[in-house]
Design brief:
With 413 residues, the chain is mainly alpha-helical. It is built from 16 helices and 6 strands. Helices cover 65% and strands 4% of the residues.
Length: 413
């Protein structure tokens, strides 16, 4: 009984307009975000004596203050502040009084007027050729603003909280996001190169970035697939027929849920395979043996629990509430989950959508792999729990334990 129901559900989904909208949005979003990246230079082994090996994250508090103040000076000069309130870019422009407050904070942190800071910035950037591929990024990385001698790191953090109060949420000035970069040594660069080739085998690094973007969509889009299926019978007034079927509640709900899961996950895996393909060629061209199945490993291990929870919650809310308000409620929940992310790279905790918005950082990722495994196991178990709750609610309705259309259903024995 289960498999005929499962295949029937798959056919029904394949005929749904909502499903094709899901496919179109998913494909357009992922290809637009991931198809134009070029990091082939990372597959060139570093040599001793190179002029630069790139940069790495630093934990030096003085450097963090210098780097953050430099960024604040630049964004204040442009009156353009980069924020990510819901993990998507939003430019913030301040009015004159707000800009004056930022300039006052800079004065308190540096002991210099904003005009002095601008003069120092102009002098720094004039020493680099901004028209070259090397000059522009290096000049930005090396521009630092010295804090006042008596400024403590705690005072600096409090000042940045005031900045965030003016700019809004999601900026680089939030205390938990304060970072700085320092030049890599040859040893650092060689270690990163070997990790990329030997641990990630190139494709693993790219698939983490894929999962970062795909995960955002899987927190939102499947809501509409699940709700559409659960509401379809209500629109067709088919409850009486369904409740009278010989199939168990577990078979009915299970076939629906697994069909939606299969149909939603299949395009994710196919897109991952297609987007990974150029990096297979790139790795082999550079003499690196790629991980051919990285697209499948990361899709199943990273993305599937997110999809399972999103669909399961959609099923349980729609079955419980029985109208479009269930969709509205879950949309708010989804955006809240995204908004609560505090880091774009790692620090997985119990976030529904783990973020790794960078290529590489292999050593850091494998150091946090255990945390990610716990996160994914938690959401896998939560999805099973929500699915079980959906079966119980459906079975309760079937046996006349809840109201339906304002009338108490009779027991069907």
């Amino acid at each position: 009984m289960f498999f005929p129901l499962f295949f029937k559900e798959c056919r029904q989904i394949a005929k749904s307009l909502v499903y094709y909208l899901y496919l179109i949005i998913l494909v357009l979003f992922l290809t637009s975000q991931l198809s134009d990246g070029d990091w082939s230079d990372r597959l060139t082994e570093p040599k001793p004596g190179q002029e630069s090996y790139g940069f790495k994250e630093s934990e030096d508090e003085t450097l963090i203050m210098e780097s953050t103040l430099a960024e604040l000076v630049r964004e204040t000069d442009w009156n353009s502040y980069a924020t990510y309130p819901f993990m998507f870019y939003k430019e913030v422009t301040l009015n004159d009084s707000e800009l004056a407050e930022i300039e006052q904070i800079l004065f308190e942190c540096t002991g210099k007027s904003f005009e002095q800071l601008l003069d120092e910035m102009d002098a720094h950037f004039s020493g680099y050729d901004q028209s070259t591929m090397e000059g522009a990024p290096i000049s930005g990385q090396t521009f630092l603003v010295e804090p006042a001698e008596d400024l403590t790191f705690e005072e600096f953090q409090n000042a940045m909280k005031r900045v965030c109060g003016i700019i809004g949420k999601g900026s680089a000035f939030e205390p938990e996001k304060l970072t700085a970069s320092e030049p890599k040594t040859y040893e650092d660069a060689l270690e990163d190169y070997r990790a990329l080739c030997e641990k990630d085998k190139v494709t693993g690094a790219y698939m983490r970035l894929f999962c970062d973007y795909a995960g955002i969509m899987l927190v939102i889009l499947p809501i509409f697939l699940g709700a559409t299926r659960c509401l379809r019978d209500k629109r067709a007034d088919a409850q009486q027929v369904i409740y009278a079927r010989a199939a168990s509640s577990l078979q009915v709900v299970g076939s629906r849920y697994l069909a939606n899961l299969f149909m939603a996950f299949l395009p994710v895996v196919l897109i991952a395979f297609l987007l990974q393909s150029p990096y297979l060629y790139l790795a082999r061209t550079n003499g690196v043996a790629p991980d051919v199945f990285a697209f499948l490993k990361y899709s199943v291990g990273w993305l599937l629990p997110t999809l399972m929870v999103t669909l399961a919650l959609s099923f349980v809310l729609t079955e419980l509430i029985g109208n479009v308000f269930a969709v509205i409620l879950q949309v708010f929940w989804s955006f809240a989950c995204i908004a609560l992310e505090t880091s774009l790279v790692g620090e997985f905790g119990f976030h529904l959508e783990p973020r790794w918005n960078t290529v590489g950082n292999t050593q850091s990722f494998f150091a946090q792999l255990g945390q990610l495994a716990i996160n994914r196991l938690f959401y896998l178990l939560l999805a099973i729990l929500l699915f079980g709750l959906t079966v119980l609610i459906f079975d309760r309705k079937r046996k006349g334990g809840v109201f339906w259309h304002g009338k108490n259903s009779k027991s069907r024995g």
